[in-house]
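During the reporting period the student researcher (J.K.) took over the structure-prediction task from the postdoctoral fellow and processed the backlog of single-chain submissions. One of the processed entries is reproduced below for the supervisory committee.
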Amino acid sequence: MLSLSLLAVGAITWAGLAQAIEAEPSDDTAPAVVGAAAPTSPPILSREKWRAKPALPGLKPQKIGGIILHHTAVRKNPRVSIENKMRNLQSFSQQPGKVSATHSKPAWPDVPYHFYVDFAGRIAEGRDVNFAGDTNTNYKPAGFVQVVVEGDFEKETPDPAQLAALRELLVWLSLRFDVPPQKITMHQNHAATSCPGRNFKAALPALLAQVEMRRRKAVNEFCAESLENRRTPICEETASLPRDRAGIAR
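J.K. obtained the following structure tokens:
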């Protein structure tokens, strides 16, 4: 997938979008929670709230088996609202564009990512997760939830608020789609790119350890709620695992 939700893929600069994200901020900044039926869902700005246009034809259905993490490869920009960033990203995505003097992208049906985490840790809903994302690098994006975090993490470090929001998002996605943390990977695991940046990569092991711990705790709490729950496959599998002193499956 392009290494950018805002304007770059690896070393390729998306100059047109770089200018677009400097547009004046929007005044509709109130977030809306989606996925309210899932109690572990973090607050997510819905497509309706950032005024997304309908997706164009060409979306490809997918069955989710993993999660891929990206950075925008552009420095964090607190001057522009997340609503404007998402609208600018969608506008850029839905038309052909030059990404360098010799490299072009086709028009994509929608934003290429399913979730966007901004500089302050706010999360926006991107493409419908039931459809595969798009990429400007050489791998097949089908089967993955694509999550992008705002920043150039070759030069910057992820903010604690970004990591906290990403952790909650990953726990929710992991439980919702039964994706173990071992199947949460980086863009560079799939294509020749530095995405999501060395500083993001350095923070990832600790982050995934937290996701694993919170996921196990949530599964244990679910299994303890009722006999019916304990008969589900995930609880039967968990019952055979060793437990720590707190009784949480390891």
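The committee noted the following: Residues 1-39 have pLDDT under 50 and may be disordered.
J.K. will present the remaining backlog at the next meeting.
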